[in-house]
Amino acid sequence: MDVSHILDNLNDDQRNAVTSEKQHLLVLAGAGSGKTRVLVHKIAWEVEALGRNPSSIMAVTFTNKAANEMRSRIEELLQSPMLDSWVGTFHGLSHKLLKRFHKEAGLSSGFTILDSDDQLRIVKRISKDLSLDEATWPARQSQWQINTWKDDGLRSKDVDEKGDFYTETVNKIYKEYEELCIRDDLVDFGELLLKSYEVLINSPSVKDFFQTRFQSILIDEFQDTNTIQYKWLREIASKKANVTAVGDDDQSIYGWRGAEVGNILRFESDFAGAKTVRLEENYRSTGHILAAASSLISKNENRLGKTLYTSIDDGEKLLVSGYWDGQDEARHVASKIEGKLKDGFDLNQIAVLVRAGFQTREFEERFLAIGLPYRVVGTRFYERAEIRDAMAYLRLINQPADDLAFERIINTPKRGLGLATLQIIHRLARAREIPLLAAASALAESDELKPQARRALIAFCAQIAGWCKQKDTIVPAEFLQVVLDESGYTEMWQKDKAPDAPGRLENLKELVSAIEDFDTLGGFLEHISLVMDNETVSQEGEVTLMTLHAAKGLEFDMVFLPGWEDGIFPSQRTLDESGGAGLEEERRLAYVGLTRARRNVYISFAANRRIHGLWQSSIPSRFVGELPAAHINEDMAQGLSLGSVEPVLVGALAERAGQPGYGPAWKRLATRLKGTSATPARDRDGWLPQSGKHDLTTGERVFHQKFGMGTIDAVEADKLEILFDKAGLKKVVASFVSRPDEID
C-alpha cells in the first residue's frame, strides 16, 4: 500500500515522530511547529502502514472541539471513517468507560451526570443541613475545594485534615456529598475521571480489557494533565501499548487549576526507553519574534529544552514602548490599531493580550470612545458580575427608584433577605405604586416580616439612606470604597477561597480607579451608560481583547502585550504564593504571549499606575530586561526611556533580590543596570535623570512631562506629592520631574 501521502509535506522531525518504532514517544512540540499535524498523521500511519485497527487506538485531547477536529482530519487523510475509535476528551472517554462497566463502578446503566450548577445546589443543601452559615462557608468555595480534591485523586477518607478547622468542615460536606451521589446515582465531571480510575485499579478484568484492546495511546497537550488524568493514563497503558505524549513544557501555564508540568518533565523516566523528538521548526512567527521568545524562556531552569527556528524572514523587531500612565498606553495602542485599520489591515488579526482581566477596562473604554470595533473573549469589564453588583449599589444610591438595582443587591452579600421577603416587598410596591426601596422602608417599620428578616431590612434601608446623604460630600472614588466596605461586599470576596476570587477583587479595585476621573457619582454613571450603549458593529472585523491564558492555542498577525510591569506581570500574587515555580510559570506565560504573533509584537509598560485612586510608580517587568537587545526596538514617550526608570529599578532590585521568585535573571539585570544607570545608554530627549537621589524640597516649582507645572506639597524619599496647576494633587517619582530652568 502506498502511504507516501501520509508523509508528504512533513519536515524531517515531524516524519521522525510519525514513523518512530519506539514503544514510547515524547514529542516536544514548540509553538507553531505543527503538533496537531503530527498527531493526525501518526494515527493515519499506524492504521495504514502498520495495519492497526482504528478501534485499537486511543487519542486523548482536552476539548471536544479539538477531538472533533482531530477525528475529521484523520478520516479525511484515510478516506474512511474511524469506526469504534476512542478519540475524545479525558471526561468523554471516562464516561464511555463507565457506561460500559457501570456495574463495576457501582452505578446503574442510566446514571445521571451533574453539571456545575446542579452540583452547587447540592452542596448548598448539604451545607444548610449541617447548619453552616453561607456567609462563613460559601457553597461555591466548598464546591471548588471538593473538585480540587477529586482532581488530586482524593476521596473524603483520603483527605489529610491536619487538625485544620477549614479542611475538617469542608471535608464533612464532601463526605455527605459522596454519600448523596452514591445513593442517587449521580456523577459530576470530576467523578467521571476519579470513578473510572478506581474501576481500573479495583477491577482486574476491566483493566485487562483496556490493556489488551489498545495498542497505541496518544495524548495531546500533555503538559496540561493533572494528577488524576496522569494516574488514569498510567492504568490504561499496558506494558505492550505504545504511548505517545505530545506537548510543550514551555507552554505549561495552568498550574493554578491543577495542571502538573512535572508529568511531562518525568515522562522519559516513567515510561522506560522513551524516545524524545523535538519539533523546533516554527511555521507561524518571524525570526525576531522566535529569537526573543527563545531567549526569554531559556531563563527557566526546569525545562527539557528546545530552540525554535523558522524559514520565514526575520521580519520587524519587537517594539518595546514606555508610557507615562495606563491611559497613555491605551490611547497609543488604540492609535496604532486605527492606523493599521486605515491601511486596510484585518482587525480580526489583531489581539491585545493582558495578564489579568481587570486590565481590559481602560482598553475597552478607549476603544468604545473612538468607535473601534472589538470583542472580549470572556466577559466585558462592566458586564462582570462583581462590577454589575457594585454598579447596582451606586445606581440605587443615586436613584432610589431603580428597582432593578434594588433587586440585584438586596441580598448581595447574604443578609437573610431571600425570595419570600422580596415577594412581600413586590406586593406592597405594586399595591401602593411605589419603588421597591420605598416599599422595603415601609415594611421595615411594620410587623409584616419575621423578626430576623425585619432586622436585616431595617439595617439595609438605613445603610442606603446614610449613603444617599454622603454621596455628594465624599469624592466618588472614596465613596465607592466606603460602600463596598460597609456593605460587606469586599469582605465577601476576601473570604471566598475560590480561585477567581482574587481576580474579582482586582476588578473592584480597577472600578475604584475608573471612577477617580469623575467629580460626581451621577457623572460616572452617565458615562458608563453611554459607554455600554456605544458598542460598534463593523464590517471590518473586531480587535480581540483577552487574557494571556485564554490566548493559548490561538494566533494573530499582530499582538499587543501591555502592562509588562513588575507586580502585574509577573503577578506579585503568583510570586508570593509559589515563589520560583510561580516565576517560571509566569515566564512561560510571557513565552505563550510572544508566540501568538505571526508578524508584529508590541510590548508596553507604564511608568505610573493609578491604584486605589493614587498614582504609584511602576517599574518595567523583569521580562522586559530579559529580552535580547538585538531583537527589540524602543519607542518611549517624550521624557521617558528605560534609562529614566533604571534608578528606580536598581533600587527595587537591591531590595527584592533575596525574595522568593527573584532568580538569577533578575540579578543579572540588576548588575547590568548598575553599570549603566549613571550614564544612560538611551538619551533620546536630552532629559534623563542620573540617579534616584534629588535635592528637591517642599514648595519648589517643578515640571512633569505629563501633568505639567506644579508645586511640591510633600517629600518622602524619592516620592513626591505635587499639586499640579491643572491635574491636581498627584504622587510621582522624583526622577520624573525637573526644575523649570532645566527644561530645554
Instruction: Give the class from helix and strand content and strand pairing.
Output: alpha/beta
Indicate the CATH class of the largest domain. Answer: Alpha Beta
- Return the CATH architecture of the largest domain: 3-Layer(aba) Sandwich
CATH fold category name of the largest domain: Rossmann fold
Unreliable residue stretches: 644-692
Query: How is the main sheet built?
Result: 8 strands, mixed
* Outline type: globular
Number of helices: 30
Radius of gyration: 29 Å
Helix content: 40-55%
Mean pLDDT: 85
Please give a handful of descriptors for the protein shown.
744 residues; alpha/beta; Rossmann fold; Arc Repressor Mutant, subunit A; Double Stranded RNA Binding Domain; 5 domains; six-stranded parallel β-sheet; 30 helices; globular
Task: Give an overview of the whole structure.
The chain has 744 residues and is of the alpha/beta class. It folds into 5 domains: 4-101 and 194-281, Rossmann fold (3-Layer(aba) Sandwich); 112-184, Arc Repressor Mutant, subunit A (Orthogonal Bundle); 318-331 and 560-674, Double Stranded RNA Binding Domain (2-Layer Sandwich); 383-528, PCRA, domain 4 (Orthogonal Bundle); 701-742. 47% of the residues lie in helices and 15% in strands. It contains 30 helices and 21 strands. A hairpin with a 3-residue loop joins strand 19 (719-724) and strand 20. Helix 22 (476-486) packs antiparallel against helix 24 (501-515). The radius of gyration is 29 Å and the shape is globular. Mean pLDDT is 85; it is low at 644-692.
